[in-house]
Write a structure and sequence with these properties.
Layout lengths: L13 H22 L19 H23 L2 H17 L3 H10 L4 H29 L1 H21 L4 H18 L1
Length: 187
Protein backbone atom coordinates (compact mmCIF):
# COMPACT_ATOMS: atom_id res chain seq x y z
CA UNK A 1 0.00 0.00 0.00
CA UNK A 2 1.47 3.38 -1.01
CA UNK A 3 2.31 5.95 1.63
CA UNK A 4 -0.64 8.39 2.08
CA UNK A 5 1.47 11.35 0.93
CA UNK A 6 2.99 9.39 -1.92
CA UNK A 7 3.74 11.26 -5.12
CA UNK A 8 1.80 9.28 -7.73
CA UNK A 9 2.57 11.31 -10.86
CA UNK A 10 2.68 8.22 -13.07
CA UNK A 11 0.10 6.18 -11.19
CA UNK A 12 2.84 3.54 -10.76
CA UNK A 13 3.15 3.11 -14.52
CA UNK A 14 6.50 1.29 -14.57
CA UNK A 15 6.64 1.20 -18.35
CA UNK A 16 6.44 5.00 -18.53
CA UNK A 17 9.04 5.33 -15.78
CA UNK A 18 11.53 3.00 -17.46
CA UNK A 19 11.03 4.61 -20.86
CA UNK A 20 11.69 7.99 -19.26
CA UNK A 21 14.78 6.72 -17.49
CA UNK A 22 16.14 5.00 -20.60
CA UNK A 23 15.77 8.24 -22.58
CA UNK A 24 18.51 9.78 -20.41
CA UNK A 25 20.84 6.84 -21.13
CA UNK A 26 20.07 7.03 -24.84
CA UNK A 27 20.76 10.78 -24.90
CA UNK A 28 24.09 10.24 -23.09
CA UNK A 29 25.10 7.49 -25.53
CA UNK A 30 24.27 9.60 -28.57
CA UNK A 31 26.11 12.61 -27.13
CA UNK A 32 29.15 10.47 -26.34
CA UNK A 33 29.19 8.96 -29.83
CA UNK A 34 28.79 12.32 -31.56
CA UNK A 35 30.86 14.62 -29.34
CA UNK A 36 33.80 12.55 -28.06
CA UNK A 37 36.59 11.94 -30.60
CA UNK A 38 38.08 8.48 -30.94
CA UNK A 39 41.68 7.95 -29.85
CA UNK A 40 44.00 5.41 -31.42
CA UNK A 41 45.31 2.79 -29.01
CA UNK A 42 48.76 1.32 -29.13
CA UNK A 43 48.99 -2.28 -27.94
CA UNK A 44 51.17 -2.96 -24.92
CA UNK A 45 54.30 -4.97 -25.69
CA UNK A 46 53.98 -8.64 -24.82
CA UNK A 47 56.24 -10.10 -22.16
CA UNK A 48 59.02 -12.22 -23.66
CA UNK A 49 58.50 -15.97 -23.41
CA UNK A 50 61.69 -17.92 -22.70
CA UNK A 51 62.66 -20.27 -25.48
CA UNK A 52 62.27 -23.99 -24.66
CA UNK A 53 65.47 -25.62 -23.44
CA UNK A 54 66.99 -22.39 -22.10
CA UNK A 55 67.87 -21.87 -18.44
CA UNK A 56 65.11 -19.24 -18.12
CA UNK A 57 62.47 -21.73 -19.35
CA UNK A 58 63.77 -24.39 -16.93
CA UNK A 59 63.65 -21.95 -14.00
CA UNK A 60 60.08 -20.91 -14.87
CA UNK A 61 58.98 -24.56 -15.09
CA UNK A 62 60.70 -25.48 -11.81
CA UNK A 63 59.11 -22.58 -9.94
CA UNK A 64 55.58 -23.88 -10.70
CA UNK A 65 52.63 -22.43 -8.77
CA UNK A 66 54.75 -21.59 -5.70
CA UNK A 67 57.00 -19.43 -7.86
CA UNK A 68 53.99 -17.50 -9.08
CA UNK A 69 52.85 -16.95 -5.49
CA UNK A 70 56.32 -15.75 -4.48
CA UNK A 71 56.33 -13.35 -7.41
CA UNK A 72 52.87 -12.06 -6.46
CA UNK A 73 53.89 -11.46 -2.84
CA UNK A 74 57.08 -9.76 -3.98
CA UNK A 75 55.05 -7.49 -6.26
CA UNK A 76 52.61 -6.65 -3.44
CA UNK A 77 55.52 -5.73 -1.12
CA UNK A 78 57.10 -3.57 -3.82
CA UNK A 79 54.01 -1.37 -4.25
CA UNK A 80 55.21 0.89 -1.46
CA UNK A 81 53.58 3.22 1.03
CA UNK A 82 51.99 5.54 -1.55
CA UNK A 83 49.92 2.68 -2.93
CA UNK A 84 48.66 1.64 0.49
CA UNK A 85 47.84 5.24 1.48
CA UNK A 86 45.87 5.57 -1.75
CA UNK A 87 44.10 2.29 -0.98
CA UNK A 88 43.15 3.67 2.45
CA UNK A 89 41.69 6.82 0.86
CA UNK A 90 39.69 4.68 -1.58
CA UNK A 91 38.30 2.66 1.34
CA UNK A 92 37.24 5.87 3.13
CA UNK A 93 35.62 7.11 -0.08
CA UNK A 94 33.72 3.84 -0.45
CA UNK A 95 32.22 4.26 3.01
CA UNK A 96 30.77 7.66 2.05
CA UNK A 97 29.55 6.73 -1.43
CA UNK A 98 25.78 6.55 -1.88
CA UNK A 99 24.52 4.33 -4.69
CA UNK A 100 21.26 4.61 -6.56
CA UNK A 101 19.60 1.78 -4.61
CA UNK A 102 19.92 3.76 -1.39
CA UNK A 103 18.51 6.85 -3.12
CA UNK A 104 15.52 4.85 -4.35
CA UNK A 105 14.92 3.49 -0.85
CA UNK A 106 15.10 7.03 0.55
CA UNK A 107 12.60 8.21 -2.09
CA UNK A 108 10.10 5.57 -0.97
CA UNK A 109 10.77 6.49 2.66
CA UNK A 110 9.84 10.14 2.02
CA UNK A 111 6.62 9.28 0.20
CA UNK A 112 7.35 8.44 -3.42
CA UNK A 113 5.69 5.39 -4.94
CA UNK A 114 7.86 2.51 -6.13
CA UNK A 115 7.65 3.63 -9.75
CA UNK A 116 8.44 7.29 -9.02
CA UNK A 117 11.40 6.27 -6.87
CA UNK A 118 12.95 4.90 -10.06
CA UNK A 119 13.00 8.44 -11.41
CA UNK A 120 15.62 9.27 -8.81
CA UNK A 121 18.11 7.20 -10.79
CA UNK A 122 17.09 9.02 -13.99
CA UNK A 123 17.52 12.39 -12.25
CA UNK A 124 20.95 11.34 -11.02
CA UNK A 125 21.94 10.21 -14.52
CA UNK A 126 20.62 13.44 -16.04
CA UNK A 127 22.68 15.59 -13.67
CA UNK A 128 25.75 13.43 -14.31
CA UNK A 129 25.22 13.79 -18.06
CA UNK A 130 24.67 17.56 -17.86
CA UNK A 131 27.72 18.26 -15.70
CA UNK A 132 30.32 15.84 -17.10
CA UNK A 133 31.45 18.10 -19.96
CA UNK A 134 31.74 21.30 -17.90
CA UNK A 135 33.62 19.41 -15.21
CA UNK A 136 35.95 18.01 -17.88
CA UNK A 137 36.64 21.58 -19.00
CA UNK A 138 37.30 22.54 -15.36
CA UNK A 139 39.78 19.68 -15.15
CA UNK A 140 41.51 20.79 -18.35
CA UNK A 141 41.81 24.37 -17.09
CA UNK A 142 42.63 23.92 -13.38
CA UNK A 143 43.87 20.35 -13.06
CA UNK A 144 42.76 17.12 -11.46
CA UNK A 145 43.17 18.32 -7.87
CA UNK A 146 40.57 21.05 -8.34
CA UNK A 147 38.15 18.70 -10.05
CA UNK A 148 38.64 16.06 -7.37
CA UNK A 149 37.98 18.67 -4.67
CA UNK A 150 34.72 19.64 -6.41
CA UNK A 151 33.71 15.97 -6.65
CA UNK A 152 34.49 15.17 -3.02
CA UNK A 153 32.79 18.38 -1.89
CA UNK A 154 29.69 17.43 -3.89
CA UNK A 155 29.70 13.94 -2.32
CA UNK A 156 29.89 15.40 1.18
CA UNK A 157 27.15 17.95 0.40
CA UNK A 158 24.87 15.26 -1.08
CA UNK A 159 25.38 13.00 1.92
CA UNK A 160 24.69 15.87 4.34
CA UNK A 161 21.48 16.83 2.52
CA UNK A 162 20.26 13.24 2.81
CA UNK A 163 21.30 13.05 6.45
CA UNK A 164 19.77 16.34 7.59
CA UNK A 165 16.73 16.73 5.32
CA UNK A 166 14.18 14.69 7.24
CA UNK A 167 11.04 13.68 5.34
CA UNK A 168 11.26 16.40 2.65
CA UNK A 169 10.89 14.90 -0.85
CA UNK A 170 12.51 17.86 -2.64
CA UNK A 171 15.67 17.45 -0.57
CA UNK A 172 16.12 14.13 -2.34
CA UNK A 173 16.39 15.95 -5.66
CA UNK A 174 18.81 18.48 -4.16
CA UNK A 175 20.93 15.54 -3.07
CA UNK A 176 20.70 14.12 -6.62
CA UNK A 177 22.20 17.37 -7.94
CA UNK A 178 25.20 17.12 -5.63
CA UNK A 179 25.64 13.38 -6.13
CA UNK A 180 25.26 13.75 -9.92
CA UNK A 181 28.14 16.27 -9.90
CA UNK A 182 30.15 13.81 -7.84
CA UNK A 183 29.41 10.97 -10.28
CA UNK A 184 30.40 13.16 -13.22
CA UNK A 185 33.79 13.73 -11.60
CA UNK A 186 34.49 10.10 -10.73
CA UNK A 187 33.18 8.64 -13.97
Amino acid sequence: QPHPTSVQASNNNYQLIFYSASFVSLAATVAFTVLVPAHARTPAPAAPVPAPGTPAAAAAAAAGPAGGLRELLSNVRSLGGDFYRMLGVICLYGMGHINESLLEARAMEVGFGKAEATLVVAALAAVTFATAFPLGRLDDKYGANTTLAVGVGALIAGDLVLLLSGPHPMALFASCIFLGVHWAVIQ
